Amino acid sequence: MTDDENKTEFLIQEYECGEKANIYQIDHEQKAKHLSTKKSKSHTSLTSLFRAFFYPDNYPLGVSSDYGIYQLYNIVQTGCIAISGSFAFSALFRAMGVGKTASNYLAASIVWLLRDGAGMIGRIIFAWGFAASLDADCKRWHFLGDVLNDVACVSDMITPYFPSALLFISSISNICRSVTGVIHGSTRTVIFQHQARNNNLADIAAKCSSLETMVSLVALFVNVVLLATLPETSIWPIFLVLTAGHLWATYKAKRCILFNLFNRQRFHLVCSEYFKTNGRQTLSIEEVNDREPILFKTSFPYRSHIGVSLKHIPEKIFPSQKQLKNFHSNDYERFLILHDQSSNTFYVLLRTNSDTDDLIRLNFFIEIISYAMNSTTEENFNEEFQSLVNRIQKQLPDLNLCLTILHEDNDRCYEQFKQVCLAQGYNFHRCLFDIGIYRIH
Prior knowledge:
This protein has helices at about 5, 45-55, 65-95, 105-130, 140-160, 165-195, 200-230, 230-255, 265-275, 285-290, 320-330, 355-375, 385-395, 400-405, 410-425, and strands at about 10-15, 20-25, 30-35, 305, 335-340, 345-350. It is mainly alpha-helical.
C-alpha cells in the first residue's frame, strides 16, 4: 500500500441513540473495516430488553427531557388503578349476584347492558360539550379524568351495600369511565405530541400503550392472588391505599410535564413575570410548568372570548361600520379587539388568515392592556417598557388608540417579548389557546 493510499484512510465513529457504539476504518477502496465496539450494556440484559420493548427506538434523543420521569409515574398509577379496578369489578359482580345459586342471570345481563348504554350516552354528550377545549388545558383535564376513574371504582365498591340502587350506581360509574376514556384519548395525544421530538408520535404512543399493557398484565396476576387470598375485611383498606397512590402518581405525572407551548394559563404567568421585570425577563419553561395549577384554573383579572361571532358581541361595544370596513379590507389586520368595560371582557374577531403568531400577539396585547388597567401609573420614562405602559394608561378610554400604540414600529413591543420567550425555548409555531370557531373573510 503506498503512502498516498494510507493517507486516504480515515475513521468514522458510529453512535447508537446518542452513545458511542462502533468505530470503522474507511480505506482507499471505500471499504469499511470494523475496528472496535464500545463495551456497554449487554443487548441481552433485562434493561436492554425492557428498553427495546417499551421505549421508543431512538430514546432518549427522540423524546422530550420529561419523558422518562413521566413514564415512571405512569407505571405507578397504571398499576394502582389496575388492581383497585379489579376490586371494584369484583364488588360489582357480587352486587349483581354472581356466584349465588338463586341469582337471576337475566336481570344481571339487563343491568350490565343498561349501564353500558348509559356510558355510551355519557361519552357522546361529554364529547359534544367539552371536546373542543380538552387540548387547551390538557393537564387539568387529564388529571380530572383520573379522578373520575377513581370515582367510578368507589361507586362500584359500594354497590353491594345498596342492592336496590344497583342500576343507578353502576350507570353512574360507567358514565365516569366513559368520560375518562374520552378525556384520556384526547389529552394523551397532546402529551405525545409534546414528547415526540423526531416525528415519532406513533412510536411513542404504541410503546406507551405496550408499557401500560405490561403493567396491567402483571397486575392481573397480582389481582388473582389478592382476590383469592384476601379476607373481605382487608379489601377496603387496600383499595383506599391504592386509590391514594393512583391520585398521587397521576398528579406527579402531570406536574413533571414541561410544555413549551402556550395555553392561556401558562401565557398569563409568562406575561405577568415579563411585566413585573419591565420587559427584561420571564419565567423559564420549568418555572411556568411548576406554577401552572393542575386541579384549579389560574385566576384572571379579565375575561376574553376569541374567535366570536358578530351576533355574540354586546350591542354597546359593537364595532362601527368604519371599523368593520377597515378590518375587512386591511389584510395586515388579522384580528379586531373590542372591550366591554362594565364586565371587563375582551371580544376578538378573527380573519380567516389568522395564524398562530397572530393568536399569541393578540393575547399579548390583551395582557398588556389589562396590566395597564390594573397597575399604578409611574412617571418613570427611563424604562422603555414602563414608558409604554404609561402611554397606554393615558389612552385607556380609547381602545383603538391603545392598539395603535402597541402596533407602533411593526409591533416592536411584541417582537421584544417574543425574542425573550424564544431565548427561553418557548414554541411560537403552535399554541393551545381556547379559540372560537368563527372567522371573518
